[in-house]
Write a structure and sequence with these properties.
Two copies of one chain form a homodimer. Chain A is of the alpha/beta class and 292 residues long. Chain A is built from eleven helices and twelve strands. In chain A, strands 4-3-5-12-6 form a five-stranded mixed β-sheet. In chain A, strand 1 and strand 2 form a beta hairpin. In chain A, helix 1 crosses helix 2 and helix 1 crosses helix 4. The longest helix of chain A has 27 residues. The first copy, chain A, is rod-shaped. Chains A and B meet through helix 1, strand 1 and helix 4 of A and helix 1, strand 1 and helix 4 of B. Chain A binds a DNA duplex (30 and 30 nucleotides) through helix 3.
DNA sequence: CACACCCTGCGCAAAATTGCACAAAACCTG
DNA sequence: CAGGTTTTGTGCAATTTTGCGCAGGGTGTG
């Protein structure tokens, strides 16, 4: 059965009993209805209607089609109702992805947002590989670094991540405090294993010290923080992270050039949906508290 | 939801994951598929797919549509299976109509035919009013008299009804036998109450006797036979009927001009269906036995 | 019995749909 | 990393579909 429109036409004819009545309901010319009926009967090789001067009377086959198409019509009506509503209400899944280092910030927000919308299921995806918005893997992504410029992605600046330079008390006891920029070469650092890291504070560090001062190198951000905590060396950490870890000593005033940008990225197809929009506005609201 | 064809297109895209794949399945150009998707999304105001270089990924709304349309597709497939088979197999209803005087002949045939086809429901309609084939009230009609010439009705001659002139033994005892055509005016007859009856034997009777000899007039054929049996007068009766009623005396040799034609009438829309055809051939086969 | 009304059916022209060719972008493979 | 493949997207022309007007026929009603 190809050409579902002809089924719909036949359905209305069976329901109305006349070609003219069906044509009026369908909003087409009655000649079109006749042609549809002739076409579907010819394709099926079955008479669906008995033609007479008063209209079209469905045969048993036509009554069978009537029942099936009636159910289909109901199904479609319900579907349209769901689809139209779905764009407006916040329900179903909300898939958010970010680097795992952001989870401390995001998880409380996601939890609160879910509690505001009982019908919502939160899927928070973090991992090494980038979850791609284009394939529908996520609705909202939190990205760091330079502004992403992927097509079909609508990207907006989220917030500047304030970065500080910290060390553990044990490190200060052992190596003494940092006495300004010129003293950097006399200390040892915890840094990223990635030589080409484009994070601004990493570039700053490469410019102001020599390679051999970075004596503890990690590929994972969380491990870096652990290393700093353990006194392995001086390391960069977001101000917000540092405030949650007691015993850290600020080694230097924060430089503006260390700041990293965070970006909120959504797929253009989903950006205008109420679900995404309400989450974004809620997230920005909560993010104001982090800035101070 | 108008335009069911677009639903079908969207269904195939959701199923295949690509526009090209859906286009191949649907047998249309991929540009058509793209336009259908754009159209249905615009009409619903909901994004059904996320577009990317690898194809179209259904959103939650698209997945909802996929489920509904999948069910619809199954329903339609089953419907087509039923419809295509329905034309071939003998099942459902078989509606036959005739004058009630034919019931003695038809009922045994109908009974046997039903037993040959367990899935069949026989509806045998008899009554004063004519059941009209055009409105789907009956599949097959058995008509007497001149050949019906209604449009859309396919008419075929069934058999000639041999008619004899009979009386009860009690009538012969009282009035004596009929001594030829010239003796008709000396007898009394059982006839129809309808002055304009076009039955050939009635016209013959009006031509060969006077009105006042028809002393028992009925509107119903069965009542006429009862009257003849009771000795009210001489009356016409089909040879087949007379042979089933003992004690009747044939008053005259059967005249060819008395014979009435019976016609099998079907609606043109149903005439070619296997159900009607197999019943007609079965009926004709059984009718051969009546001719002898 | 005649009139009015409604429904079907058909030819022709207008309109919408579709197919085609081509472009551009992304992905896979060797 | 480059070539080949697959995919979507768009302007233009051909085709199909649709709408319109009118004729024909049947039905019901006054």
């Amino acid at each position: 059965m190809e050409n579902w429109d002809e089924v719909r036409t036949a359905y209305q004819v069976a329901r109305m009993g006349t070609v003219s009545g069906a044509a009026e309901v369908l909003g087409v010319h009655h000649a079109t209805v006749i042609r549809h009926i002739d076409a579907i009967e010819a394709r099926l090789g079955v008479k669906l209607f008995q033609r007479h001067a008063r209209g079209y009377t469905p045969t048993e086959s036509g009554q069978d089609l009537l029942r099936v198409a009636q159910a289909t019509d109901d199904q479609f009506s319900q579907l349209v109702g769901r689809l139209k509503g779905q764009g407006d209400e916040v329900s179903g899944e909300l898939v958010v992805t970010s680097l795992s280092s952001m989870s401390h910030l995001l998880v409380p927000v996601l939890t609160e947002f879910q509690q505001m919308h009982p019908g919502l299921v939160i899927r928070y995806l973090t991992g090494e590989r980038l979850f791609r918005l284009e394939y529908g893997e996520a609705h909202v992504a939190l990205r760091a670094g330079n502004a992403p410029d992927q097509p079909d992605n609508v990207v907006q600046p989220f917030l500047k991540q304030k970065i500080g330079l910290f060390a553990a008390q044990s490190y200060v006891d052992q190596h003494g405090p940092l006495k300004g920029v010129d003293d950097l070469k006399n200390h040892q650092f915890v840094g990223t294993d990635n030589q080409e890291s484009r994070a601004p504070f990493n570039k700053w560090l490469r410019e102001h010290t020599t390679e051999d001062t970075i004596i503890f190198r990690c590929s994972d951000g969380v491990a870096m923080q652990e290393a700093v905590m353990a006194g392995a060396g001086i390391g960069f950490m977001s101000m917000w992270e540092a405030s949650r870890r007691p015993g850290l000593i600020k080694m230097m005033d924060s430089q503006v050039e260390w700041e990293g940008s965070l970006w909120l990225v959504t797929h253009v197809d989903l950006h205008r949906t109420n679900k995404v929009q309400s989450f974004l506005s809620f997230l920005k609201e909560r993010a104001k508290a982090w800035q101070e």
